[in-house]
Design brief:
Radius of gyration: 19 Å
Largest sheet: 7 strands, parallel
Strand content: 15-25%
Bound molecules: uridine-5'-diphosphate-4-deoxy-4-fluoro-alpha-D-galactose
InterPro entries: Epimerase_deHydtase, NAD(P)-bd_dom_sf, UDP_G4E
Order of helices and strands: EHEEHEHHEHEEEEHEEEHEEHEEHH
Family: Belongs to the NAD(P)-dependent epimerase/dehydratase family.
Shape: globular
Distance between the termini: 38 Å
Structural class: alpha/beta
Pathway: Carbohydrate metabolism; galactose metabolism
EC number: 5.1.3.2
Keywords: Carbohydrate metabolism, Isomerase, NAD
Number of strands: 16
Length: 319
């Protein structure tokens, strides 16, 4: 297929773009490089530097879109909600309009666990209530809602993948490595590994008074290569007039303290930790049931254990 990958110069988008190229698709990456890196675009993909609000030219002749381009930090979204509503909702609506105008009827959308807010039960299923606790989750949920309506009325073929916490690095068949490298890093695993690498003295632990076993937040970590493979299955599962929604996680929860402990084991470094205040917008526990995508699309995680995720992220760091 001819595919447009928005945000394909970012961490997850570049891994998916690499897997799509390997699978024989013709891939064009559209990215404004606001958080991505031009050198993350895989060899074999065409790169267009630009915004999702101006995608008409890039969309010409496409069979489908994989839409990653977004702001994706919970804390930043609490401080700067306008950024999230404008970019994630406004930008995506503009992209969907341009798709309709260009006759492109298939989309795989990066949704998020953050749509569920504070869940009532764990693991979370796709039919559970969606009550986001931050603008990031709310903006993604608004797009999911629009996709359902667009599928019903305009015949769009849409799949939303609700990612839980993505980590690790991917080595492509050509030996190239794809890793997380945000200019301002807020994610737990890279921040912990930065301490092991010597770039920082200690890692912050945001809140130790959550209603969890050790008081720190619990998250469900999924390997970026496993997550990426789900997109290829989702692309094939797109059906006109349907909007399918799938969680993507491992079904296992790890606390912040447990993640730091695994990082100590993997790296052999002491990694001092300092307790800080809670970070606004963080739910206590987010763990996915991925039974639906396993059952319906045959997805199976291959490298999703926390030690494998951490080991791959650690091995990919430049020294
Ligand atoms: N944390 C720390 N110290 C740090 C960084 C994070 O204690 O230096 C804590 C956070 O407070 C949180 C947990 O570690 O409790 C995980 O935080 P991340 O920033 O790694 O990830 P989030 O859970 O906030 O968010 C990520 C993605 C979102 C997605 C969400 C779904 O960034 O896009 O997972 O679970 F919505």
């Amino acid at each position: 297929m001819k595919l447009l990958v928005t945000g394909g110069a970012g961490y997850i988008g570049s891994v998916v773009a690499a897997q799509l190229v390997e699978a024989g698709h013709q891939v064009t990456v559209l990215d404004d490089l606001s958080t991505g890196h031009a050198d993350a675009v895989p060899a074999g993909a065409r790169f267009v530097e630009g915004s999702i609000t101006d995608a008409a030219d890039a969309l010409a002749g496409m069979d489908g879109v994989l839409h990653f381009a977004a702001r994706s930090l919970v804390g930043e979204s609490v401080r700067e909600p306008a950024l999230y509503w404008n970019h994630n909702l406004g930008g995506t609506l503009a992209l969907l309009d341009a798709m309709r105008a260009a006759g492109v009827g298939r989309i795989v959308f990066s949704s998020t666990a953050a749509v569920y807010g504070e869940p009532e039960r764990s693991p979370i299923e796709e039919s559970d209530p969606t009550r986001p606790t931050n603008p990031y989750g709310a903006s993604k949920l608004a797009v999911d809602t629009a996709l359902t309506a667009f599928a019903g009325v305009y015949g769009l073929a849409a799949v939303s993948l609700r990612y839980f916490n993505v980590g690790g690095a991917h080595t492509a068949r050509d030996g190239r490595s794809y890793r997380e490298r945000h200019t301002v890093e807020t994610h737990l695993i890279p921040n912990v590994l930065a301490v092991a690498l010597g770039g920082r003295e200690s890692v912050d632990v945001f809140g130790t008074d959550y209603p969890t076993a050790d008081g720190t937040c619990v998250r469900d970590y999924i390997h970026v290569a496993d997550l990426a493979r789900a997109h290829l299955l989702a692309l094939d599962a797109c059906a006109p007039g349907e909007h399918k929604v799938y969680n993507l996680g491992s079904g296992a929860g790890f606390s912040v303290r447990e993640v730091i402990e695994v990082c100590r084991d993997v790296t052999g470094h002491a990694i001092p930790a300092v307790v800080r205040e809670r970070r606004p917008g963080d739910p206590a526990v987010l763990v996915a049931s991925s039974a639906k995508i396993q059952r319906e699309l045959g997805w199976k995680p291959e490298r999703t254990t926390l030690p494998e995720i951490v080991a791959d992220a650690w091995a990919a760091l430049p020294r």
